[in-house]
Write a structure and sequence with these properties.
Layout lengths: L20 E2 L17 H24 L10 H14 L3 H13 L7 E3 L1 H9 L1 E4 L2 E6 L2 E7 L4 H5 L6 E5 L17 E7 L5 E7 L1 E4 L4 E5 L5 E5 L4 H13 L5 E5 L8 H9 L10 E3 L21 E6 L6 H11 L4 E4 L7 E7 L5 E10 L15 E2 L6 H6 L3 H11 L4
Parallel strand pairs: 1-16, 11-12, 12-14, 14-15, 15-18
Antiparallel strand pairs: 2-17, 3-9, 4-5, 6-7, 7-8, 10-11, 13-17, 16-17
Length: 410
């Protein structure tokens, strides 16, 4: 998407699977990185860089859920990447060094977020034109247009092919950092392959998770929500209570990359008339409190349920799917999920950036892990959606889910 990093997962909550901003105080000192070898003009920047590096290195050493860090020689990693961090001339290079070090952990929920991105995460807004694109048949294609964006106002539609941006064809990545007020010249082919040229002015656009409810013929309701936070859980509960007599519900989590654990527990509770086991979060010492769904105020929806998942489905959304699947409460339809399931918190860094740090390991009811494995759907959809599907408004994965919901009960 145009300059919009996918940090949808990073929203405030309680113990989180993809977000909570907290202060952290590291006690283990980081390996010392000498500054004498750097030119005098670089040493002020280097000193600031090392304050950030020290905080990141120490927080991982003290608070990561795995005290052995998967066998990584953390002091050696600190010496190597600390030197790169010290020499970084700007935030881009500094955070590349930090994330190079953190990448050694092979941890889905541990990463350093630069100050600008951290602020956008907290504000849930980013400067962009509002075009979300994916590859269809090898070509960048508009898949969504963000509500309230310049692209929506200009009439851009899903299914348009992106020909060029500022005269250049899009490359391997469809991410373009933009400044407020920057003009972007887009060239498209519309749904009838007619050329369209638009000059769009980038501005701050809300990136909060989307929530969409659609009632289909026969009364089946499709509920898409893209996060697990207070707004999402209240919306889901209200929708299920409004449609408590619907014969079936499709929960679309294909764009949902997580949220907080309280909202997750409440959302799972909406589908049961009793509290159910949701697995365990194990801390650094291996301790875990009992974790069960929350039933207070539950809709206790009793109809049939299908859950749509895909490669973006992560964290809380994976636990939601796995718990309903384990309890035989829903049919999981779609594609294998991300396998990114750890309990993390956010820690402020000295320059305004943040460290997202995994501090709890998640274990399913009955044992196994989802981290690195993901959820295997009950019904796997193998055929990739095509450009013709998108332009015609067809959703093959949803069609399969509806077939399962409407089939006679076994």
């Amino acid at each position: 998407m145009d300059g919009r990093a996918k940090i949808s997962s990073l929203r405030p909550g309680a113990w989180i699977l993809l977000s909570l901003l907290v202060a952290g105080c590291a006690t283990t000192p980081a390996p010392r990185i000498p500054l004498a070898s750097l030119p005098a003009a670089q040493q002020a920047r280097a000193a600031q860089n090392l304050r950030v590096y020290d905080k990141v290195w120490g927080l991982v050493a003290d608070k990561h859920y795995d005290p052995k860090l998967g066998g990584v020689d953390w002091p050696a990693a600190g010496r190597e990447y600390g030197a790169l961090a010290a020499a970084a001339p700007d935030d881009t290079m500094l955070y590349a060094a930090l994330n190079g070090m953190l990448g050694l952990l092979h941890d889905s929920h541990t990463r350093a977020i630069p100050p600008t991105s951290a602020r956008e995460r907290r504000d849930q807004a980013r400067v962009l034109t509002g075009i979300v694109a994916s590859r269809f048949d090898g070509r960048w294609t508009v898949t969504e247009v963000l509500p309230g964006s310049p692209a929506e106002a200009a009439g851009v539609l899903p299914g348009w092919l992106v020909v060029a941006r500022n005269g250049e064809p899009p490359g391997e990545r469809f991410a373009f950092p933009l400044r407020d007020g920057e003009r972007v010249r887009w060239e498209f082919l519309d749904r009838d392959d007619r050329p369209v040229e638009l000059a769009l002015t980038a501005r701050p656009v809300a990136t909060a998770p989307r929530q969409l409810a659609t009632t289909l013929s026969g009364g089946v309701v499709v509920l898409r929500f893209d996060g697990f936070d207070a707004t999402d859980r209240r919306w889901l509960s209200a929708q299920l209570k409004e449609h408590r007599d619907a014969p079936g519900v499709v929960i679309d989590l294909r764009h949902n990359s997580g949220g907080d654990s309280f909202s997750l527990g409440t959302s799972i509770g909406e589908f049961f008339d009793r509290a159910v086991d949701m697995g365990k979060f194990l801390d650094r010492a291996g301790d875990s409190p009992q974790w069960r769904s929350f039933q207070l105020g539950s809709a206790r929806y009793a109809g049939r349920v299908a859950v749509l998942v895909g490669g973006v489905t992560a964290s809380s959304a994976e636990i939601f799917s796995a718990v309903l699947q384990t309890n035989g409460r829903a049919t999981i339809v779609g594609r294998h999920t991300a396998g990114a399931v750890l309990g993390s918190r956010f820690h402020a860094l000295p320059d305004g950036g943040e460290l997202q740090l995994s501090q709890r390991n998640y274990v399913l009811p009955g044992g196994g892990r989802l981290e690195g494995r993901g959820v295997e759907p009950d019904v796997v959809v193998t055929a990739a959606p095509t450009l013709a599907d998108l332009r015609a408004g067809r959703d093959p994965d949803l069609e399969v889910a509806l077939e399962r919901l409407r089939a006679p009960a076994r």
